[in-house]
Amino acid sequence: MARIIDVAEPLGLWDYADLAFLAPAVQALRAEAATLVPALRGRKLWMINSTPQGGGVAEMLPKMVSMLRELGVDTDWAVIQTDRQPFFELTKRIHNMIHGVGSPDFSGDDRDLFEQVGRENAEKLRQYVRPNDIVVVHDPQPAVVGAILKRELELPTIWCCHIGLPERLPVTRAVWEFLEPYVATYDHAIFSAPEYIPSFLAGVSEVIHPAIDPLSQKNRDLHTHGLVGILCNAALAVEHSPVLTPAFASPAMRLMPDGRWAPPSSWDDIGMLSRPIVAQISRWDRLKGFAPLLDAFARLKRCPRPDAGEVHRSRLEIVRLVLAGPDPASVADDPEGLEVLEELRAKYLALEPRLQSDVVLLTLPMTSRKENALMVNAIQRCASFVVQNSLHEGFGLTATEAMWKRTPVVGTQACGLRQQIRDGLDGRLVADSTDPEAIAEVLNEMLVDRNARERMGRNGQRRVYEKFLIFTQLRHWLRSLAETATR
Questions:
Q1: Which of 71, 103, 133, 400 is the most exposed place for a label (fewest CB within 10 A)?
Q2: Superfamily of segment(s) 3-211+469-485
Q3: Is the pTM higher than 0.90?
């Protein structure tokens, strides 16, 4: 059942304030906290979600919890648990339905299962939660937990939904009708885009964008020797000379032409440090658009550009596509991951040998969060540009992360990505994420214009600084928490 997650972040706000480019953001956060935190004294804040690792919410919460504590807010993090695998199959279906995918049907057994798992976890949390506390529930999986604690303890509750779809479809109406009895009981709701708010929550909702920690292992600066060391330690590059740091306990794994998974450098060098690299790093989810991106890259490689100059023809000859995601066995709340990875494996094995050598399918182990984050950091920094070809996207922190690193991003018209990327300014937006020809055209345009990529990278980093760093996010959260506590 539900368990409390230990949070021990090594960096405090003073570490961020010591850096000139972050000091103003920290100062603004501290100033606002001084006026808002007194309203939360004597209360514990509970953050509740469905997994301790894998996905944006699990990545955000440790730093949020740590910084809230440092600002004077007593905060803990709990994760719901169950050994009922059908529960996570149901919640994955709910996730897809909120994005407009799936059949608009639920059975009585679905509701019984959803409520039973929620009830069991709520009973466990009753040992810790007190009537004066504030409960924040993230996403649909634990929605019942907050509803039960609200009813039984009459405490303030907030539901934070990180996913959504701008369109209103039969399938989205069905899933919101399924969730309404639970989430409508909360005092307040938070979404990552205004278009996601269902009508029955319109009067009690606000928008707070997700954000990144600029000094996390995934986002901190990497000097040249550190970057090379990470690539070698993870087997993402061939070690041509000794490196200072030891090999990671678990290397990245690459799909080989014979269908085996093996350390990437056991075949050939990917070329992270020398080749043009187009990279997408996401959870293995059909909504992330991996398959059409792979088709688009194959089209780009197969169809020579008759008007391309000699340099660009050489660039197209050696460019590689890197598709990476976490080891799906390590993400408990996403049973679809293995299926999606197997589908991509089949597409890869069907490619001609010449293309197989230029498509790199990677799984990144989660045995060490630090090492996993460093692998992602290194791949994003080595990429000529990062792609997030999502069919639908709640927000898309993988885009935010790349923008912070001054790596330009190719996104889509998915609502979450439109919140971040201004087409032509901070990156590019593909008109149709399912159209390989349209995607290939944008990939080609990005590869050919280095000056545009550099300009977009600079603009993207500035936009993240102004809008999507954790300091701005926490200022909005403190306002919302203080208002909820004083109602």
A1: 103
A2: Glycogen Phosphorylase B; (3.40.50.2000)
A3: yes
Q: What pLDDT shows up at residue 468? A: 97
DSSP classification of residue 40: G
Are 21 and 221 in contact by the 8 Å Cβ rule? The answer is: no
What six digits make up the tokens of 223?
């000097």
**DSSP helix/strand/coil, 109:** helix
Mean pLDDT of 243-267: 94
| Residue whose token pair is 């909360």 | 186
Burial 218-231 (b: 16+ CB within 10 A, else e): bbbebeeebbbbbb
Using the predicted structure, report yes or no on whether residue 264 has a pLDDT greater than 90: yes
Please tell me the distance from the alpha carbon of residue 365 to that of residue 102, in angstroms, as a whole number.
30
> pLDDT digit string (tens) for 146-191?
999 999 999 999 999 999 999 999 999 999 999 999 999 999 999 9
Beta-bridge partners for 158: 136, 188
Instruction: Answer with the residue of higher pLDDT: 333 or 310.
Output: 310
Say which amino acid occupies 467.
K
Q: Where are the domains of the chain?
A: 3-211+469-485, 224-467
What would the two tokens of residue 167 be?
Answer: 């369109």
Distance (Å, whole) CA 438 – CA 398: 22
What whole-number distance in Å separates Cα of residue 132 and Cα of residue 171?
37
**pLDDT grade for 308, boundaries at 50, 70 and 90:** confident
Tokens 């087409």 found at: 423
Q: Which residues contact 328 (CB under 8 A, 6 or more apart)?
A: 284, 334, 337, 338, 340, 341, 363
| CATH of 224-467 among 3.40.50.2300, 2.30.180.10, 3.10.270.10, 3.40.50.2000 | 3.40.50.2000
Write out pLDDT tens, residues 267-281.
889 999 999 999 999
What is the predicted pLDDT for the residue at 333?
A: 62
E strand or H helix at 261, and its extent?
A: strand 261-262
The answer to whether 164 and 191 are in contact (CB under 8 A) is yes
Paired with 189 in beta bridges are: 159, 205
Q: How do residues 201-239 score in pLDDT, each as one tens digit?
A: 999 999 999 999 999 999 999 999 999 999 999 999 998
Checking DSSP bridges between strand 359-364 and strand 253-255, what pairing results, if any?
A: antiparallel
What pLDDT was estimated at residue 332? Answer: 60
Measured CA angle at 82 (ends 362, 481), to 5 deg:
85
Q: At what angle do helices 170-183 and 85-98 cross, to 10 degrees?
A: 120
Question: DSSP letter string over 171-228?
Answer: HHHHHHHHHHHHHTTSSEEEESSGGG--GGGGGGEEE----B-TTSTTTS---HHHHH
Q: What is the residue type of 365?
A: P
Question: How far apart, in whole angstroms, are the C-alpha atoms of residue 272 and residue 382?
Answer: 6
**3-211+469-485 matches 224-467 in fold:** yes
Nearest-angstrom CA–CA distance, 117 and 144: 8
